[in-house]
Amino acid sequence: MKSDDGSFLDDEATGEVPVVSSSDSRVTITGADVAAEIAEPAVHDETALPHWTDAPTGQVPIVVAREAAESTDPWAAIPAPAWREGEADWVAHEEQFDASFLASETREDESRPWEFVLTEDVVVEEQILDETPRPEPPRAERTRRPANPLAGRAVRQSRAASVSQATTTGLLLGVLVAVLFLGGPVPVAVLVLCALAFGAGEGYAGFRRAGAHPATLLGIVAVVTLGVASYERGLAATAAVTVLLVIFGFLWYASAERSIDVLDGLGATIFVYVWVGVLGSFALLMISPQYSVDRHGMAYLFGTVVLTVANDSGALFIGRWLGRTPLNARLSPHKTREGTIGGTLLTLVVGALVLPMISPWTTKSALEIAVAVAIVVPLGDLFESMLKRTLGVKDLGRLLPGHGGLLDRIDGLLFALPTVFYLTRILHLG
Predict the structure, then answer these.
(1) What is the pLDDT of residue 423?
(2) Whole-angstrom Cα distance, residue 39 to residue 337?
(3) Quick check: 2 pLDDT over 60?
(4) SS3 letters across the chain
(5) Residue 148: band (very low, low, confident or very high) from pLDDT cuts 50, 70, 90
């Protein structure tokens, strides 16, 4: 086939560019130059990727790290995904994890499905263990499941078991104390020293649980030493032992391996010593040969214990039966005014009917001392409650089933002992 310029279409290419005049109206193809002849040699760029048409070289291209790359891409600041399976993984990537959504207060039932609300019966049982009253939770936080119909019955059974256990423990202690009183001053003195040592240990343990650093061993030794010295030497021993405790306490903390605040250490040590040791030593003063004539001190000490037990028992049972108004809601919401009145009445009844049966008690002296005991014993209970609230503990010990620690039983007695001791001197009894 022949073209317009006289050449045949099947002729071989000559490489010549045809000349096209400006007046030629026919369609022509431009840019058909031979690329290999007119292209300039490219400058070799080591960082440039090879053309897709080039033959493979077998080399792995260099990937620039994200941190080293300078880019204005806003998505470059987002950290790469990290697999978190254990707790250590979350801690390691803590700075990359935004936990703000966990504190969302909107639609907690959907955004925080891993949370659940305790049932009403479990909440009630927890309130039994903690004396602090808890407000009713908002409607949104109430349980979705129906309340356990046996919850109230379980609460009543728990309280009944606690009262029964406390009563049994109290009766056993009463029998033990009565037998030792029949044995004379020495067995009673040993009982008092053991009670004071255990009580001081509970007090120091409570301070340690609160983060304080009392000198427990030094304090217990001081309490026992004061008791023995009071029995042998009388009131003069109190000042001597207290001075020795302060001096040895200073040396104790001055030689400590690390620095301890004096109020945090020595202050807690002296506090328990005065509360348990000094107040409790009046029991040994009452039976001391220097103050007791014809063992009248034994009778007054036994009467003090009986009046204190009567006050505690009356407050417990009357308070559970008729108690409605808290005596001091801030210190102890479960001690009620009705219980205090009941304890006072029972103390007066025991003082008027029981103590006159024990020589040298008389009806007049028994009633006078019973009135004083009915006032100071509740103060001792509130004092320990205030201390426990300050330390953040429910009980200072668990030595006595149903009662808690030993200090929970003798807190009122510690206030009654010096009261009765000085009243017997003022009223010239014994």
Answers:
(1) 94
(2) 109
(3) no
(4) CECCCCCECCCCCCCCCCCCCCCCCCCCCCCCCCHHHHCCCCCCCCCCCCCCCCCCCCCCCCCCCCCCCCCCCHHHHCCCCCCCCCHHHHHHCHHHCCHHHHHCCCCHHHHCCCCCCCCHHHHHHHHHHCCCCCCCCCHHHCCCCCCCCCHHHHHHHHHHHHHHHHHHHHHHHHHHHHHHHHHCHHHHHHHHHHHHHHHHHHHHHHHHHCCCCCCHHHHHHHHHHHHHHHHHHCCHHHHHHHHHHHHHHHHHHHCCCCCCCHHHHHHHHHHHHHHHHHHHHHHHHHCCCCCCCCCHHHHHHHHHHHHHHHHHHHHHHHHHHHCCCEEECCCEEEEEHHHHHHHHHHHHHHHHHCHHHCCCCCHHHHHHHHHHHHHHHHHHHHHHHHHHHHHCCCCCCCCECCCECCHHHHHHHHHHHHHHHHHHHHCCCC
(5) very low
| Backbone torsion region of residue 3, taken as left when φ is above 0, otherwise alpha when ψ lies between -120 and 50, otherwise beta | beta
Tokens 């030792």 sit at which residue?
180
Q: Which DSSP string do the residues of 389-427 spell out, in sequence order?
A: HHHT-S-S--SBTTTBSSHHHHHHHHHHHHHHHHHHHHT
| Cβ burial, residue 146 (10 Å; 0-12/13-18/19+) | exposed
Residue 213: closest CA among 244, 275, 259: 259
| Distances in whole angstroms, Cα of residue 159 to Cα of each of 60, 236, 293, 350 | 78, 46, 45, 27
Q: Is 226 in contact with 214 (CB distance < 8 Å)?
A: no
**Higher per-residue confidence, 220 vs 163:** 220
Single-letter amino acid, residue 77 = A
Q: How many helices (H) and strands (E) does the chain have?
A: 15, 2
Token digits of residue 69: 């790359």
Q: What are 137's two structure tokens?
A: 């939770």
Cα(248)–Cα(242) distance, integer angstroms:
10
Interatomic CA distance for residues 70 and 178, integer angstroms:
91
Planar angle of CA 406, 411, 413, nearest 5 degrees: 105
Higher-confidence residue: 93 or 357? 357
In the chain, where are the structural domains located? 110-125+138-158, 165-426
